[in-house]
């Protein structure tokens, strides 16, 4: 049993070790896939580029806000939702009834048993995607930049994401399901 635990603990480390053959001194060294060339270019801040980089995160944040607005509507304004969509399945969309679905459908993940949990899942996926779509380009772009350029880009990205999330949530909850 101890050897099985040992193998299971260290198997990912062994499998993920990638070695490349160095022809000069015939020694194995880990290949990380990182470019070792040094660039001397300095990053120059551009508002246009920052706003252009914010299109994808803003779209994902807006969709997450819409998702949140629908989810809150299902909780607090459920009758307005059913007035807007009269053919919607109450057993799936009404959270006073849909909580029973997880007990009647064994083997189905809870996220797919009712609308509330599915909306919560997609909301989290959209917010995570927005955060990743902001973070990765910022890290790549700011290798040789000044701290205040990084701070300006982070501030612009955060503001655009927050405003688009707020717009999506408010548009859905306060205007579509008025």
Structure report:
By secondary structure, this protein is mainly α. The protein has one domain (44-176). The chain has helices spanning 2-16, 47-53, 55-76, 78-84, 90-93, 95-98, 101-104, 115-141, 147-176, and strands at 19-21, 28-30. It has a two-stranded antiparallel sheet with strand order 1-2. β1 and β2 form a beta hairpin. α2 (47-53) packs across α9.
Keywords:
178 residues, two-stranded antiparallel sheet, disordered N terminus
Question: In a nutshell, what does this entry contain?
Answer:
With 178 residues, the protein is mostly helical.
For this entry, what is the oligomeric state of its chains? single chain
Helicity, as a percent range: 55-70%
Query: Can you write the helix and strand succession as a string?
Result: HEEHHHHHHHH
Number of strands: 2
Q: What is the makeup of the main sheet?
A: 2 strands, antiparallel
Q: Tell me, rounded to a whole number, the average pLDDT.
A: 77
Domain count, please report it: 1
Secondary structural class = mainly alpha
| Percentage beta strand | under 5%
Strand arrangement within the widest β-sheet reads: 1-2
The shape is: elongated
N-to-C CA distance: 61 Å
Number of helices: 9
Rg value = 24 Å
* Low-pLDDT residue spans: 1-27
């Amino acid at each position: 049993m101890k050897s099985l635990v040992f193998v299971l603990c260290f198997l990912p480390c062994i499998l993920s070790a990638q070695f490349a053959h160095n022809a000069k001194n015939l020694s194995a060294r880990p290949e990380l896939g990182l470019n070792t060339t040094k660039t001397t270019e300095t990053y120059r801040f551009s508002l246009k580029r920052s706003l252009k980089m914010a299109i994808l995160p803003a779209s994902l944040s807006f969709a997450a806000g819409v998702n949140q607005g629908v989810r809150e509507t299902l909780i607090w304004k459920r009758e307005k939702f059913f007035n807007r969509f009269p053919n919607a399945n109450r057993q799936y969309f009404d959270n006073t009834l849909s909580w029973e679905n997880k007990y009647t459908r064994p083997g189905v993940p809870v996220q797919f048993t009712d609308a509330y949990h599915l909306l919560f899942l997609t909301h989290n996926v959209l917010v995570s995607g927005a955060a990743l779509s902001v973070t990765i380009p910022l890290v790549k772009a700011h290798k040789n930049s000044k701290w205040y350029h990084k701070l300006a880009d982070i501030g612009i990205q955060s503001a655009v994401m927050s405003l688009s999330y707020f717009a999506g949530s408010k548009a859905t909850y306060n205007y579509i399901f008025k």
